[in-house]
Amino acid sequence: MKFADIIGNNDIKIYLNKSIENKNILHSYLFLGNSGIGKLIFAKEFARKILCFENTKEECTCKSCTCFNGKNHPDFYLINENGENIKVDTIRNLTEKVIEKPIISNKKVYIINDCEKMTKEAQNCLLKTLEEPPEFVVIILISSNENLILNTIKSRCMSIKFHNIEDRDLILYAKNKLGYTNISNNFLKSFDGSIGKMIKLKDFKEKYDKIDLLISDILKKDLIEIMLDGKILYDKENIYDILDYIIVCLYSKKEENEKYLNCIRYVNECELRLKSNSNFDMSIDNLLFKMWEELNERSNRS
């Protein structure tokens, strides 16, 4: 996908294009930013342009670009595309191969996706290559959590920080590409500036609309009704995303009643219970009860 077709972060597009045009390509980069905002897509297009025989073209049919687009370029390596844990053996293999000269291009490009998932041993193994890379090698690290990356790794890379995608661009993409309709403000906020998260949540829109309604109804319905409506929260596989969305809904209603903000602590407590393997149903029931109590009984007492 050419840079012009990638949504957002236009300043980074300009910087990367100028780096190629001016032949000022560094040996190591660290792409940082929230998950799902396009860092890997940027890295792939940057890699294609680095390897391209023409360099400056947005669209090219040279041998390098043909191989790249066909996913069989001998000088391009994508490690951990699916975001799994990266063990030291994977990085050892990289360090052994990295000294081999390019086959068809002037350079070789390695992308390590979700590099924060490298074990500490793997990161230390990569360090020597980052300190003394062959002149023809470019390494692009991608991360959504730089706190898990060794400082010695970060200090040897050019850090490029990606911004969340703006709401207006998300809305256009959602409607034109994904067929979204009637996106509520809360649902839009839940995307957190990420197209990846927007795609992930597409099939959950109906459920999230009901959660939005559930939060709005806490002050309108009695406890039994809320407990029954709250059965929609019984989704173990997606519960942490659901809890995040409840916080978005609660925060959006703070102007109506500041006690909605007080309810956020109950959501956080519920998350902690679930992470400590407390009973799932009881944790959700307790959350619903605590929120209803905060917004109703305590309001009546005051």
Topology of helices and strands:
Elements: H1 10-21, E1 28-32, H2 39-51, H3 63-69, E2 76-79, H4 88-97, E3 108-112, H5 120-131, E4 137-143, H6 151-154, E5 158-161, H7 167-177, H8 185-190, H9 195-201, H10 205-217, H11 223-229, H12 239-252, H13 259-275, H14 280-295, H15 297-301
Parallel strand pairs: 1-4, 1-5, 2-3, 3-4
Helix pairs in contact: 1-2, 4-5, 10-12, 12-13, 13-14
Folded structure, characterized:
This protein has 302 residues and is α/β, with parallel strands linked by helices. It has two domains: 3-161, Rossmann fold (3-Layer(aba) Sandwich), CATH 3.40.50.300; 167-301, no CATH class. It contains 15 helices and five strands. It has helices spanning 10-21, 39-51, 63-69, 88-97, 120-131, 151-154, 167-177, 185-190, 195-201, 205-217, 223-229, 239-252, 259-275, 280-295, 297-301, and strands at residues 28-32, 76-79, 108-112, 137-143, 158-161. Strands 2-3-4-1-5 form a five-stranded parallel sheet, with helices on one face. Strand 2 (76-79), helix 4 and strand 3 (108-112) form a beta-alpha-beta unit. Helix 10 crosses helix 12 and helix 13 runs antiparallel to helix 14. The longest helix is centred in the last third of the chain and has 17 residues, at 259-275. The mean pLDDT is 91.
Largest beta sheet: strand ordering: 2-3-4-1-5
Overall average residue pLDDT: 91
Strand content of the residues, in percent?
5-15%
Low-confidence stretches: none
Q: Which descriptor suits the 3D outline?
A: elongated
Report the oligomer: single chain
CATH superfamily (homologous) name of the largest domain: P-loop containing nucleotide triphosphate hydrolases
DSSP strand count: 5
Number of helices: 15
What is the CA-CA span between the terminal residues?
59 Å
Judging by the overall fold, what is the CATH architecture of the largest domain? 3-Layer(aba) Sandwich
CATH topology of the largest domain: Rossmann fold
What kind of sheet is the major sheet? 5 strands, parallel
Order of helices and strands: HEHHEHEHEHEHHHHHHHHH
Number of domains: 2
* CATH top-level class of the largest domain: Alpha Beta
Helix fraction, binned, reads 40-55%
What integer value in Å does the Rg equal? 24 Å
Class based on secondary structure composition and strand pairing: alpha/beta
